TrEMBL record:
This protein's name: Aldo/keto reductase family protein
Keyword annotations from UniProtKB, A to Z: NADP, Oxidoreductase
Sequence ranges assigned to domain NADP-dependent oxidoreductase in this UniProt record: 16-313
Coiled coil (UniProt feature): none
Pfam family of the protein (one): Aldo_ket_red
Signal peptide: none
Record-linked InterPro entries: K_chnl_volt-dep_bsu_KCNAB-rel, NAD(P)_OxRdtase_dom_sf, NADP_OxRdtase_dom
Domain of life: Bacteria
Recorded family membership: Belongs to the shaker potassium channel beta subunit family.
Amino acid sequence: MEFRHLGRSGLIVSQLAFGNWLTRSSPGGEETEIACVRAALDAGITTFDTADVYADAHAEESLGRALKGERREGLEILTKVFAPVGPGRNDMGLSRKHIRESIANSLRRLGTDHVDVYQAHRFDLSTPLEETMEALADVVHSGKAHYIGVSEWTADQIRQGHSLARELKIPLVSNQPQYSALWRVPEAEVIPACEELGVGQIVWSPLAQGVLTGKYLPGGTWPEGSRATDANDGSAELAAWLTDDVLSRVRQLGPIAAEGGLTAAQLSLAWVLQNPNVCAAVLGASRPEQITDNVKAVGIRLEGEVMDRIDSVLGPVVNRDPAVTVESSPPSPGWRLA
């Protein structure tokens, strides 16, 4: 494993992080997650990402149990707040009330007295940003989080939040956007703003929900037990990628990867980690061996000619539209995290 500073902070994270959004909901449940967490630890992964809303709060609980007995100072635990966690009007968002209640519940479920990074899961259009940042400052100043981060905020929202964070003397150090060789939405605006501010990226879906592994072939027949065949395992996220055009182009990455002694998944992870503003890529897994295989992407340096070939193959099907990040801000209290 190799490590990077998170933005311009002093916090060091593993270049691959284990995320349990889908793992906790996959067949096998907590038993599978514990095996995957063990594989992650054995591979040198020290950074673990979750959220209060994942698996109806059970993800935090099971991650806490899986990490029980590990030296807390040797881990970086990240969780998030925003999405609905109950039926009440105040059971979502970034109000002072919800943030204070949510951090207490997250720490209880995780079995720890602090998290390393507490992340605002989306931007809250219905709460004054000043209220949100002051509440997050309370979390940091009380010792319940060392740093704060955001997820899927626009460049302007990150700038505003970062400015308030500096006034409140708290470190806003990270953003968690979707980012992969197929999804380059953050490149136009978000990543340049973060580079300027010293904010690092902890990216999710670096394998485009498994599409970049090459396991989905053109023709519409999906591997049994894959996410595309399981309505409870994130299949809705795959819909845009499961077209013959996209899948035919992804297949062309196989020979490029093989030339470097890599799998398509390892090539795609190495592509993400090539970006100097990416501090960590969040990996999910339904089997421990997926973790073991994917960590081999760490330390791989792709030559410019290889990067150009990847661009040439995927270019026509890449999403680069920064407006998509704006659309991720929930428009109403009825919004639910996908």
